Amino acid sequence: MNSPAADRARYDRATAHLDAPLAIVDLEAFDANADDLVRRAGGKPVRVASKSVRCRALLERVLARPGFAGIMSYTLAESLWLARSGFEDVLLAYPSADRAGFGELANDAKLAAAVTVMVDDPAQLELVDAARDGGGEEIRVCLELDTALQLLGGRVRVGARRSPLREPAQLAALARAVAARPGFRVVGLMAYEGHVAGVGDALAGRPLRSRAIRLMQGTARRELAARRAEVVAAVREVVPDLEFVNGGGTGSVQQTAAEDAVTEIAAGSGLYVPRLFDNYTSFSGRPAALFAQPVVRRPGVGVVTVLGGGYPASGAPGPDRLPVPYLPQGLRYDPQEGAGEVQTPLLGSPADDLLIGDRVWFRHAKAGELCERFDTLHLVEGDRVTDSAATYRGEGRTFL
Question: pTM, whole model, 2 decimals?
Fold first, then answer.
């Protein structure tokens, strides 16, 4: 693995003919991260979370590698677009209220065979039926299990507020409701443990909080493994030919893959390795997706200003949602300004070695959200840009 200084030098050489701002994906790092996900999945297929990639060319690249199978999408419109583009196994990970999209799905045999929709409430089935517009295609359905850890009789909750379905009887009842309704078929079950897969457990300079997170996650994994196995058994009594049970995420691949009840793993952020995935004891990856902002001002000693850069990530607001100045190492935000919409001052001794027109390389806090800021990802191999790939935005697609 190259040193940060060597990486900076080759990224600068590779993109010297391009104007910044620009975004790159280091293909060597991307492929190495893909291999690591497959290794950690222990023989179970990895379904790629498209929201963490948002580039069709890179989705095709990773799905061509052994160990990957299928896409986990984030909107129905995206799911239909991907299916029309040739992707044959698309699991929509979130319920939808896209009536026009459901009408298309119910009226197109190819789309209906390729796309599976998420359901956790009978009302969602009613919405689909009301949107069919005469279409009689069978809709593939996945049920979602709430994974949150509940303590003290439910008074304390740790985990995202997703599905209302927690217990085996609730999932089995919904499976029966789907089976009894013409035009639908349960094919899968999903349970995303974001409080384990998406929360780092080795926070720099915070040993007590890190230990508390590890204790919480250990408890959550044990509770969920037992409950998930019971839920899968209950649903299989209703749907013996259940095609898949999806679980996990980049931060919990190997733990989730160890559960017998789980048949496939979801992951996507681990391909780009954004900054939020630096703080894990269970794995380490190589930063693969970066963006460069040009130095446009030198306001004083130890300060440079770059153009733009204010690309915050979704989630609870906080410093960890900002991109991080990555190369050269040692730069930091001015606490009075942070990452700006049009300009961003950066402080630190490396600023004195930067000239007007030089680049500062950043890592986004999250993975695919970077692609909402750039039309193109320049693909770097060694010290050359060997190709460029359009992001969703570059293809004129903004799904959320």
Answer: 0.93
